[in-house]
Design brief:
Helices cover 56% and strands 6% of the residues. The protein is mainly α. It folds into two domains: 375 residues, Glycosyltransferase, CATH 1.50.10; 133 residues, no CATH class. Helix 1 crosses helix 3 and helix 2 runs parallel beside helix 4. The chain is globular.
C-alpha cells in the first residue's frame, strides 16, 4: 500500500507559535502495496491474532492489579489491528469490562482506548470502501452505551487528578496517602481525556491548563543549544491537484536548548519515555486550550520544540526494543508524539520507518513480542499509528462526519473530490499563498458548504485573497463576499466594514446582556440583509419586544423579499397575529403588510412589550427570596401604565404575593385594600 502524507506548517509571530497540520493517507489497491508496507501489514495481522488468542483466558480470569487496564490494553490493540467488533472474543471482553467499576488511572485510560477503538472500528465496518479513498483521522462519534461508558470514564479521570497541580496518581489524588504523582499516569489520563473530546464529551479547560503549566515548569534543559530540523510531509495543494509524485517535504529549523522530563515533577535528568510522554501530553493540552490563553500556548509551543530537540539528540533511546519488560512503552510514547505532532522526521530520523524496522525484526514466531501482551499491544499500536488523536486546532481531512455540528467542527466542510471533510480556512489560506486558479473550484466548494449560520467568519480570509489584480482568485473572493454579505459593492472597504459589524453582532450573540438601543442602532446602520437577519435572531432570543417598532420600519425600508419574510414572521410570532406575506416582487402587497403592522404598532406594540417583560419578572418573583422581592417590584413599576392590564390579570389569578398589589397601587395611584 503506497501512502502519501500531508503534514503541518510551522509559523512564528511575536513569539513561537507551533501549528500542527493535516495528515491523511491515500490507499491504493492491494496489488500496489510496497514490500515494506506489506511486511508491516502482515506483522499487524499476526500481532492482532496473538492478542485475540490471549483475550479469552484474560476475560475468564481477570488479571490482578489493574484488571480493567490489563484487559483493555490488548483489546484496544486487537481492534486497532483490524479485529472485528462482532468477534465473540471481542464481544465477551467488552461484556466483562462493563461489569467493572473505575478504580485506577491506567485502567480507566486504557478502557477509554478500547472504547475509542471499538467506536472507530464500528464506523469502519459500517462504510463500504472503494479501492481508492481518503481515510480520515476521526471516526463517527460513539453512541449509545459506548458513549455513556466513555462519559463515565472521562468524569472519573477529571475527578481523580490532583486539582490545580496538573498530575495524576494511580488512583484518586485526593485519597489519603495519595500525594505521589507521575507523568506516566498523567500521560495516560490526558490521552484518555483527549478521546473524550474526540467523541464530543466536554472536558474543563482548566485541566489542560494545569497539565501544561506543570510540564512547562518542570522541563529540564540541556545547557548547550542544538539545531533541530523538523520535517512534515507533502504540501496540501499538491495532493489537491492530484500531483501524487514525490514532492519536497515541508520543514522548519530551530536552535534551542533540548529539554525533557523525569518520571515525577522534578528537575534534573530526563528519561526517553517520560520526555515523549510529556511532549504528547502538551500536544493534547494545546488542543484542549483552544484559542484561550495565548501566553500559555506560546510557552507550551517553546517547550514542545525543546522536547523535539531532546528526542532528536537521544533518538536511539526511543527505538531500542528491549527483549522483555515493558520496553516498548517508550516506542509507543514516541509514536504518540510523531502522530499527534504530525511529524515525519526528527532531524534525519524518520521515526516511523526506523521504529517499524526494529519491531519487524523483533517479532516472534507466535506473532507477539517479548514481554507478553503488554509489549505486543504497544508494538501493534506503533505499527498502526493507533493514537490518531488529531488536535482540533489543526487543519483536518476526515472521511466520516466530523460530529454533531459543534463549534469545534465549524471549520470543517465536505469536499467531494476528497470524499472527506477539510479545514475551510486553511484551504483558503493555501489558495492565497499559491494564487493557483486550479484550486478556485475547491475554494468555491468550501464557501458553498460552510455552515451558513457562521459563513461570515470566512470574510477576513477572503478579503486577503482579494488583491488589486483581476486574477481568478480575486474574482472568486469578491463573488464569495457578495454572496455572504448580500452587498453588491466593488469597494473592498465596504466588506471590511461589514465584517466589523459582523464581529460586533457575533460578540453580542455569544456574550449575553444585549442592549436594545445598541441593537436598534446596528439594525438601522447596516444595509446587509444577512446582518439584519442575525440581529433579528438576537432580538428574538433575548425577547427584545421593544424593537417591534423598528421591525415595522424595516418592512417599509427593505427591498429584500427574504428579509421581509423573516421580519413579518417574527412580528407574527411576537404579537400572536397572522399577517400573510405577499408573493415575491409584489411591492404593493408589501406596502399593505407594512401599513397593517403600523396600525398595530400604534395601538398594541407598547402593551406587548410590557406584557412580555412582565411575564419574565413574575417568573423571577415566584422564585426569588423575600429580600429580593422589592427590587423586582421596582422593575415592574418601571414598566409604566402599559403594564397595568397585565398586572391586573396576574392579581386576579390570586397566585402571587401581596407585593404585586403594592406594584399595582403604585402604578394606578389607587388603594386596592386587599392586604
Amino acid at each position: 500500500m503506497k501512502n502519501v502524507t500531508i503534514g503541518p506548517r510551522l509559523a512564528f509571530s511575536l513569539g513561537l507559535i507551533l501549528l500542527a497540520g493535516a495528515v491523511f493517507t491515500v490507499h491504493s489497491p492491494a496489488e500496489d502495496v510496497d514490500p515494506f508496507q506489506k511486511r508491516i501489514n502482515e506483522a499487524i495481522a499476526r500481532g492482532k491474532d496473538n492478542l485475540l488468542g490471549q483475550l479469552p483466558g484474560m476475560t475468564a480470569k481477570l488479571p490482578g492489579g489493574y484488571p480493567m487496564g490489563r484487559l483493555s490494553l490488548p483489546l484496544a490493540a486487537a481492534l486497532k489491528g483490524g479485529a472485528s467488533t462482532k468477534d465473540p472474543v471481542i464481544v465477551a471482553a467488552f461484556a466483562r469490562l462493563a461489569k467493572l467499576q473505575p478504580a485506577k488511572t491506567y485502567g480507566v485510560s486504557c478502557y477509554l482506548f478500547a472504547l475509542d477503538a471499538l467506536a472507530r472500528q464500528q464506523a469502519k465496518e459500517g462504510v463500504k470502501r472503494r479501492s481508492r479513498t481518503f481515510v480520515g483521522r476521526k471516526p463517527h462519534q460513539a453512541k449509545g452505551d459506548v458513549r455513556k461508558r466513555m462519559s463515565q470514564m472521562v468524569e472519573w479521570l477529571v475527578g481523580a487528578r490532583a486539582e490545580g497541580m496538573g498530575y495524576w496518581n494511580y488512583g484518586y489524588c485526593s485519597a489519603p496517602g495519595a500525594q505521589r504523582h507521575d507523568f506516566s499516569n498523567a500521560q495516560f489520563a490526558v490521552l484518555g481525556l483527549q478521546i473524550g473530546i474526540e467523541h464530543g464529551i466536554p472536558v474543563p479547560r482548566k485541566v489542560f491548563e494545569e497539565i501544561a503549566k506543570i510540564l512547562i515548569s518542570t522541563q529540564t534543559l540541556i545547557e548547550a543549544p542544538e539545531k533541530i530540523n523538523i520535517s512534515y510531509g507533502l504540501r496540501l495543494e499538491d495532493l489537491l491537484q492530484k500531483r501524487r509524485t514525490a514532492v519536497k517535504s515541508q520543514s522548519a529549523s530551530f536552535t534551542v536548548k533540548p529539554g525533557g522530563w523525569q518520571y515525577t515533577a522534578v528537575k534534573g535528568g530526563s528519561k526517553a519515555s517520560m520526555t515523549a510522554a510529556g511532549a504528547s501530553s502538551l500536544l493534547v493540552a494545546r488542543n484542549g486550550l483552544g484559542r484561550a490563553n495565548l501566553g500559555l500556548r506560546q510557552s507550551l509551543d517553546k517547550a514542545l520544540v525543546r522536547s523535539y530537540a531532546w528526542i532528536n539528540k537521544n533518538f536511539n533511546s526511543f527505538i531500542q526494543a528491549p527483549g522483555g519488560g515493558h520496553g516498548l512503552y517508550t516506542m509507543y510514547s514516541l509514536e504518540k508524539v510523531g502522530d499527534l505532532g504530525e511529524i515525519e522526521k526528527f532531524g534525519d530520523h524518520n521515526w516511523y520507518v526506523e521504529g517499524a524496522t526494529v519491531l519487524l525484526d523483533k517479532q516472534q514466531g507466535d506473532g507477539g513480542w517479548a514481554g507478553g501482551y503488554v509489549n505486543t499491544s504497544f508494538a501493534v499500536f506503533f505499527l498502526t499509528r493507533a493514537t490518531r488523536l488529531k488536535p482540533y486546532s489543526a487543519p483536518k481531512i476526515l472521511t466520516n462526519s466530523p460530529g454533531a455540528g459543534g463549534s469545534a467542527d465549524r471549520d470543517l466542510v465536505f469536499i467531494g473530490r476528497l470524499n472527506g471533510f477539510i479545514s475551510a480556512k486553511d484551504i483558503l489560506r493555501i489558495l492565497g499563498d499559491s494564487r493557483d486558479s486550479n484550486m478556485v473550484s475547491v475554494g468555491e466548494e468550501v464557501v458553498r458548504n460552510y455552515n451558513q449560520n457562521f459563513v461570515g467568519e470566512l470574510a477576513p480570509v477572503l478579503l486577503n485573497l482579494w488583491t488589486g489584480s483581476s486574477d481568478k482568485v480575486s474574482r472568486f473572493a469578491k463573488t464569495s463576499l457578495q454572496t455572504i454579505t448580500g452587498l453588491k459593492s466593488s469597494d473592498r472597504s465596504d466588506y471590511a466594514d461589514w465584517y466589523s459589524s459582523f464581529e460586533k453582532i457575533h460578540a453580542m450573540s455569544a456574550g449575553g446582556g444585549v442592549n436594545a438601543s445598541t441593537l436598534s442602532g446596528l439594525l438601522k446602520s447596516t444595509e446587509s440583509p444577512t446582518l439584519k437577519g442575525k440581529i433579528l435572531d438576537i432580538a428574538h432570543r433575548n425577547k427584545l419586544y421593544q424593537l417591534s417598532g423598528d421591525l415595522v420600519t424595516e418592512l417599509s425600508d427593505s427591498k429584500s423579499h427574504d428579509y421581509r419574510l423573516k421580519v413579518n414572521g417574527l412580528l407574527n410570532l411576537w404579537s400572536g397575529r397572522s399577517v400573510t406575506p405577499p408573493a415575491p416582487r409584489d411591492a404593493d402587497g408589501w406596502n399593505k403588510v407594512a401599513d397593517a403592522w403600523k396600525t398595530w404598532a400604534v395601538s398594541e406594540s407598547s402593551s406587548l412589550v410590557a406584557g412580555r417583560q412582565l411575564d419574565g419578572l413574575l417568573t423571577s418573583l415566584e422564585k426569588a427570596p423575600p429580600e429580593a422581592a422589592p427590587g423586582i417590584i421596582k422593575k415592574i413599576v418601571a414598566l409604566g401604565d402599559s403594564a397595568v392590564p397585565h398586572l391586573r390579570r396576574a392579581v386576579e389569578k390570586n397566585e402571587y404575593s401581596f407585593h404585586l398589589i403594592e406594584a399595582l397601587e403604585q402604578l394606578t395611584g389607587k388603594e386596592i385594600g386587599l392586604r
